[in-house]
Design goal:
Strand content: 15-25%
Strand order of the largest sheet: 3-2-4-1-5-6
Structural class: alpha/beta
CATH class: Alpha Beta
Radius of gyration: 16 Å
Number of domains: 1
Number of helices: 7
Distance between the termini: 22 Å
CATH architecture: 3-Layer(aba) Sandwich
Length: 194
């Protein structure tokens, strides 16, 4: 399988440094331009199937990159739910929940945002999805248009990195990561290409 992981373009929430998981903002003007630039640079991708998060920013990205192509919309590719931290900036959370936030950043598997999704639960959701598409599309070109968190999880899994290295995988808005999988053999062609 040829697997292309695409992060959506930037939103106003991303721009201001706000946590945006299950919130559903649209791409901003810069985000649209980023995606159009990405389309120009990687227009050789002709997928056999497209999977897309059900968040609008991901759907907009997929529609720009692959106009007129059908896609499978799935909540399995949604970003982690940041609970009461949704829409808050890093600075706001640091002030209001400094101890919990510092612990979550350092030990993301032991701490969870209030009312949010555990990182381990998001990881399980994404890995189950990934294993299902391996089985369903072993010889096809598969595109997943999603978010930074799910791409980090998939990259750690495919690169056989410890999941505690989650934060060390940089995934920029409107970026593509490309992996080729054949049986147990995995090749990372590029990660976080913009």
């Amino acid at each position: 399988m040829k697997l292309f992981l695409i992060r959506h373009g930037i939103t106003d929430a991303n721009k201001k440094g706000a946590y945006c998981g299950v919130a559903d903002p649209i791409l901003n003007q810069e985000g649209f331009l980023q995606v159009f630039d990405l389309k120009k640079s990687d227009n050789q991708i002709i997928p056999d199937i497209i999977y897309c998060s059900d968040r609008r920013r991901a759907c907009q990205t997929a529609q720009i990159l692959f106009p007129g192509m059908g896609m499978v919309i799935t909540s399995d590719l949604c970003e982690i739910n940041f609970g009461s931290w949704e829409g808050m900036t890093y600075q706001d959370i640091s002030k209001s929940c400094s101890g919990l936030y510092a612990n979550w950043m350092q030990y993301p598997y032991q701490y969870t945002p209030p009312g949010g999704e555990k990182l381990s639960d998001m990881e399980k959701r994404v890995i189950v999805f990934l294993n299902n598409i391996f089985k369903a599309h072993p010889e096809q070109k598969v595109v997943c248009v999603t978010h930074g968190g799910p791409i980090r999880v998939m990259a750690c899994y495919l690169l056989k990195k410890e999941f505690r290295d989650f934060w060390s995988v940089s995934i920029d808005p409107a970026s593509i990561s490309y992996f080729q999988l054949s049986g147990q053999h995995i090749v990372s062609h590029y990660l976080n290409k913009t």
